[in-house]
Amino acid sequence: MKHPLRQHIEEIITLTDEEFDFVLSHFTPTIKKKHQYIVQEGDYVDKEYWIIKGCLKSYFVDDQGKEHILQFGMENWWITDYESFVKRVKSKTYIDCIEDSELLYITYENREKLTAEMHKMERFWAKKSKMGRIALQNRVLALLKSSTKEQYEMLLEQYPALFQRVPKKMIAAYLGVSRETLSRLDS
Question: Which InterPro entries did the record assign (predicted)?
C-alpha cells in the first residue's frame, strides 16, 4: 500500500519511489492531542502541516473574545497560518486539534529547498495554491451573496463528514452565527 502522502501528491504529479523517498525525507511526523495547539497568535510559523488523521481548526479571537473559525482541516488537507509561514511575520491566528491528530509537517526552509531541487514538487504546490485560492474565493462569495441557510447547506453538501466530527458551536463560529441561529437552520 502506498504512503498516504504519496497518494495525495500523485493526484497531481507522478513520483518514482526514489523521488517520493526524497520528498518524504523533508517531512517530520508528529502526533498532537485533542485541544493541543500547533499555532498560537503571535507565533512565528515555520511549519506547514499535512493531516494524515484527525481534525483541526484555524481561527482568530476578536476583541470581544469571540472565536471566528476560518478553516477546518481534515485528512489530506494542508493547514498553517500562511501569512506567517510565507512572510515571516507573527501569526494572527490559532490552529488547534479538534481530535487527536497525526500530522506531517514541512518547514519553510525544507519546502523552499525541495521546490528548488525538484520542480515536480514546485508544480504540485502551485496547483495546491491555485485550488486553495479557488476555495477561498468561493468561501468569500458565499459569505457575501448567500444566506446563512444557503451557506449551511453548501457546507453540509461539500463536507458531510465534518458534521459528525465537529460540535455545532464550531459550525456556527465558521458560519459567523450564534448557536441558536444554527439550531433553527438545522431543524
Answer: cNMP-bd_dom (IPR000595), cNMP-bd_dom_sf (IPR018490), RmlC-like_jellyroll (IPR014710)
